[in-house]
Sequence to fold (319 residues):
Amino acid sequence: MSNVKLSWREKVSYGIADLGFNFYWTNIATFLMIFYTDVFGLSAAAAAGMMFSIKLINAFTDPLIGALADRTQSRFGKFRPYLLWVALPLALAGILTYTTPNLSEDGKIFWAYGTYLFMMVCYTGINIPYNALSGVMSGDSQERSTINGLRFIFAFSGSTLVTYLTPDLVKWLGQGNERLGWQLTMAVWGVAASSLFLWTFLNTRERIQPIAAEKSTVLQDIKDLSHNGPWLALFFLALIIMMTITLRSSTAAYYFKYVVGQPDLIKTFVPAYMAAAAVGASLTPLMTKFIDKRFLMMLLMSATALLSAAFFFVPNDAQ
Fold:
């Protein structure tokens, strides 16, 4: 039973949830920062500081959510229920995050902190159990590789859809009211994502019972991790990588709007960026056969830093 071959229906049903996750993630990574400054009315410093602070908080809430998922016992399994339980709260959080109430400057900052934190906790509240779900659907490593490969295809499709359609949806739904347009656009993406999460919940099964671990509290798990040197090193490395990815994505909209003067270029930049990431991911197993992993990581991170800095020297009117 553990090495069961999954039907294509179940494989696709698992991968399709990543389409829904990118309805949020691409909006957050590409458009949220410019929404906060150009629509919501926050200063760039306040918006950037808020987003960085929430990322730091998520560094602690994410392991907590993972520990809670590991301890979940329900008739639907450990991880599948979160696709059902948190889908609607995430949709609501997305709408609230892109809502612009008429508040004072301090009130806006408070609203932004609260709603963005709410959205990110809900997001990881589904995403972390979803990631773990692939490991308990089948014990066959090839089956797990297949469903995780399908995930990337759907993730790429979701990023492309959001990048192309979001600016047009804002204009069409808002009819000149940009604030209303963003709110309704996130409602559309939220309903679509919730439907996909429900589909995944209904059409996947947990077949592998994880090995029972030693009983411990969630706080004890976090305390143990804080004394784990290799884990801490990987944690800060992952934090740096995520900051790099987030900065690149969130500043792209500003770059094309204010530096290049062609905001519509974001529609081709993000898909090209995702395609390049796909090529890099596919080449990684080959490169690690010939280059030490640690040296390869330092080499590629250095190249990323140099190429990112090179944007400073690109003329504004370069074609």
User: Anything to note?
Assistant: The domain at 8-227 is CATH 1.20.1250.20 (Growth Hormone; Chain: A;). The chain has a mean pLDDT of 87.
